[in-house]
Amino acid sequence: MGLRRFVLKRVLLTVPILFGVSVITFVLVNVAPGDPVDVIVAFNPDIGPAEKAQMREYYGLDQPVWAQYLRWVGNLLQGDLGEAITRNRSVNAIFMSRLPETIVLGLFGWAFAIIIAIPTGIYAAVRKDEMGDHVSRIIALSGISIPNFWLGLMLILFGALTFNLWPVLPPRKPLLHPDTLWFLLLPGITIGTASASTMMRIMRSSMAEEINKEYVTAARAKGLPERTVILKHVLRNSLISVTTVAAFLTAGIVSGSVVVEVVFSWPGLGREFVQALNARETNLILAITLFTGVALVIANLLADIVYALLDPRIRYG
Amino acid sequence: MALLEVEDLTVNFYTEEGVVTAADEVSYRVERGEKFGIVGESGAGKSVTSMSLMRLIEDPGRIESGEIRFKGEDILEMSETEVRELRGNEIAMIFQDAQTALNPVFTVGEQISEAIRHNLGYDDDKARERTIRLLDEVGIPEAEARYSDYPHEFSGGMQQRAVIAMALSCDPDLLIADEPTTALDVTIEAKILDQIEELAEEFDTAIQLITHDLGVIAKVCDRVMVMYAGKPVEKAAAEELFYDPKHPYTVGLMSSIPRIGDTRDRLQTIPGTMPDLVDVPTGCSFHPRCPYAEAACTRKEPKPVDPDTGMDATGTDADRAAACLAYTGDLAGELDYTVEVQGEDPRLQLGDHRE
Amino acid sequence: MSTQRGRIQISGFDTERVTEREPLSAWSEASRGTTQSRWQRAWGRFRRNRVAMIGIWTVAFMVVVTVFARPVTVAGVTIQPISLAPYDPSTILYLDPAADAGRFDPPSLTNPMGTDANGRDLLSRVMVGGRASISIGFVVVFITASFGLVYGAIAGYYGGWVDEIMMRFVDTVFAFPALVLALVIVAILGGGYWQLVAAFAFPGWATYARLIRGEILSVKQNQYVTAARALGARDRSIIFKHVVPNAVAPLIVQASLSIGTVVIGVAALGFLGLGFPPGTPEWGTMLDQTRQTLIQGPGGSIPWWATVFPGGAIFLFVMAMNMIGDGVNDALDAQQVGEAPQGGGE
Q1: What is the ipTM of this complex?
Q2: Do strands B91-94 and B174-178 pair parallel, antiparallel, or not at all (unpaired)?
Q3: B122 and B254 both lie in a single domain
Q4: Which residues lie below 8 Å from residue A35, measured CB to CB, with a gap of 6+?
Q5: Measured between alpha carbons, how far is residue C287 from residues A256, C105, C126, C135, C290 in Å?
Q6: A222 — contact with chain B (CB < 8 Å)?
Q7: Per-residue pLDDT reduced to its tens digit, C329-342
Q8: C237-265, pLDDT tens digit by residue?
Q9: pTM for the model
Q10: Range of the domain at B322
Q11: Inter-axis angle of helices C304-332 and C283-296, to 10 degrees?
């Protein structure tokens, strides 16, 4: 089976999962007592019961849940995420203005994680049970254990308040402005630390496992320098197992962005999400929750494909 | 000067359960172009001995003492770079299990030609050409097309051939073959052994063949060393070993080979199993399984001696040696076994090459 | 071209002499060491792991401090009267003329961790502040591990379409980041102790279910399960008597590593202002208040203590928990270093 068919098959397999994701999201958000109309009414005591009913009818909130779901999915498939009732703006507009901010932050966190994790993981595996390994193990354990919001606060405390390297509130610059990179640094490190630590540990253990395999001895017996043995033979194999967990790390980046955006006042989807949760802005909550689900499904799909490309034994079955 | 001289090689493994002496004062030599066999059960120290030749013993193992002289130079004294120049180039290894010895994520061709590029300094095209020729020579059909196949696309026999091609790729002077055919079925085994022999002859390569199978020894080797629990217990020319075995363990191994036309009721195997090397019996480590053992065997450790004269035969030069108290006059009884030779044996045919 | 060679026949190698004689020496094949059970060996290894033991003592210390910081009252009955904390965590000290304290007082002898924005004693708040997060961590892991165990065992054991449907659901739960689901659930149910338990339990069980199912699938191949079935044992008894005990080691590893994750999650929700009412002495919620002061700048000096201590407490606990988890993982891991070489390495 060719790669194209393999990808197609995997994409088709995600359809039932995406369906499940949309159902769970919708049910969760809609079992909540109260709806946006209640929120609006709370701010507007003049609105009478008749007008409330009228508003509910207008937004389709008087329909049974399954009908509301069908309507929502129908709109969704046409690219319409509905309206943010309390904000009087379409969810699409809010979503599209926030998405790039979050993607840039997430990718930066990812890049940070990979740049840190791969070399230190290799180092720790090669130096297994030596001093360097123990030290990096403790650092990685700390990186996993440190709450990201606290790490962010500490970075602000030292980076911005104590050493004045950054302004406390970064000035708004267009995303592609060179200065953005500088302001991305603290939130990027904050979001990437846990992933970097997890990935480093996985890198180390898979590398340490591969190093004991016979093909490594065989490569050494061929007279290849240790560098080639590690960086060519061992690395390629351990990257395969790292890929399988990369998708899982994406979940950490996505949920990390919620917290980190709040800490650093980063105007992305995560901060929008927390505001939407506080305001019970159903359509916006739905859209962002669904987006996180879709993002993870896509990450899994990509990991599967990269895995298949890296490992010739997978016959795209 | 012999091609390889191993003298008093001792290798220890420092495990959680204690220190394991995997190779205990092992001495032997391999001449140029010679086929030398090391035989014994799993865990007897055969592989450890071979890995030491390339200095590829890994943690928690350590080469404790001894000398390994290759063309007169002690490998154990060399720098890492010097050893690396030997590996693959002058000493090469055929691994026991080709499936695990090949890296699953690189093509078979690449894995052979990288050694050629590195050791012989060939460029990509020339290395590829040489690899294809080698693959063809070891009997892989359509070598050019199979060059870019991955290991899992090869059958077990073909993988083994590829590993042989890899070992021969840089014309080594010494080829270490560690159970090269154990993972294969009998018909392929015979073919592969023939091939190793032919190729070794063609390239004038000496072979150190490691096996647990006396039949393989009989087919291929000129001289043999039998190992038990990390120690060499008998050394002899192949023919001598079969017609006139001197150590009870060798005798036991030979009597446990099943033969066509065997008249005995049941196969005689050596009772018990080889001891765990963490806890080796005192005296002669074979005594708990030896029918001729006496109280003396539990106290005194036998040293390799010439079985005819009883003179010390521990050194590399000794061609005939057996480590049994029977030859030093410490045994009250005698080794009352007999070796009979009847007709022609279809299985145990000694090779023709000595004629 | 083979010359005339004979069949070699050995006689006189009489193995019965070995089997029938008295052993010559004390050595015997089974003489070495008593065979410990897997769990005994794991426990021994765990005890020798210094990092893990530091973790155990740290966690024990923090749990004790949290429990005894203030009296515990259940349904009007005081079940724990000891009070280690110097102040009531919600007493606003500057309103009390007896206490010489103001807002954002730096650490001093009377207030070793300083005071917070409302002039409350931070040490007392940090001591009490672990109650919710730590206990939720344990409760959630207990609930999710038990449920996941049963769920995964059923899916793995029955296989077929039962497995297919059950695991599709697990896949779907896995398609969300746990924190996002927890946020949505808390937003719906409102904050509070059991709401937070529900918020983390809902996404949490899926990991265990997947893990146990995988283990069951591999254990199922084993002969003794087939044998038990052949003997007519009932399905349920097979699962719980034979399969589960074997699959439980990875479950324990996962559980010990999950507690820290849940504690961070609870604190994160508190930090986002969704976990508990503002002012609650809870590690994450305490940071929620300092966030504003930190970013807006409190005019002049920075009350670093208000950020450093509550967050440091979370970090310390989670770190200790992960040290334990790592130790458990190492102790229960089947493949250990130093086991491999039996001499020949064949």
Answers
A1: 0.85
A2: parallel
A3: no
A4: A56, A61, A280, A282
A5: 17, 16, 11, 19, 5
A6: yes
A7: 888 864 333 333 33
A8: 766 676 677 777 888 888 888 999 999 99
A9: 0.82
A10: 1-71+174-355
A11: 140
For residues B65 and B121, state if they share a domain: no
Q: Is B293 on the interface with A (CB under 8 A)?
A: no
Residues B202 and B314 in one domain: yes
Tally the C-alpha atoms within 13 A of residue C62's C-alpha that lie toward its C-beta: 25
Cβ–Cβ gap B339/C10 under 8 Å: yes
User: Residue C317 in contact with residue C325, Cβ under 8 Å?
Assistant: no
Residue B79 belongs to some domain of the structure: no
Angstrom distance (rounded) from CA C222 to CA C238? 12
Q: What CATH number is associated with residue B67?
A: 3.40.50.300
Return d(Cα B21, Cα B257) in angstroms, integer: 28
* Closest residue, chain C, to A21 (C-alpha): C172
Interchain contact, B100 vs A215, CB within 8 Å: yes
CA nearest neighbour of C148 among C169, C131, C117 = C169
Same domain (yes/no): B165, B186: no
Please indicate, yes or no, whether residues B142 and B279 belong to a single structural domain of this protein.
no
Q: Name residues whose C-beta falls within 8 Å of residue B110's C-beta, 6 or more positions apart in sequence.
A: none
A&B contacts, CB < 8 Å:
79
Confidence bin at B128 (pLDDT 50/70/90): very high
Listed ranges B81-85, C72-76, C243-247; the one with the highest mean pLDDT: B81-85
Q: Which of C134, C169, C184, C318 to mutate to test the interface with A (most CBs of A within 10 A)?
A: C184
Residue C73 φ/ψ, nearest 5 degrees: -120, 125
Residue B80 lies in a domain: no
What single DSSP character describes residue C95? Answer: G
Peptide bond into A225 cis (omega under 30): no
Q: Which residues from B are below 8 Å from C13, CB to CB?
A: 248, 251-252, 255, 268, 291, 337
Residue A266 and residue A100: Cα distance in Å, rounded?
A: 11
Both B224 and B301 in one domain: the answer is yes
**Residue B143 CB coordination number (10 Å):** 18
Domains of chain A, CATH where assigned: 3-91 (no CATH), 94-310 (1.10.3720.10)
User: Which structure tokens are listed for B111?
Assistant: 């894995």
When divided into structural domains, chain B yields a total of: 2
φ, ψ of residue B4 to 5 degrees: the values are: -135, 130
CA nearest B294 in C: which residue? C24
The partner residue sitting opposite C12, judged by closest CB among B242, B270, B336, is B336
End-of-domain residue from the set B125, B152, B171? B171
B350 touches chain C (CB under 8 A): yes
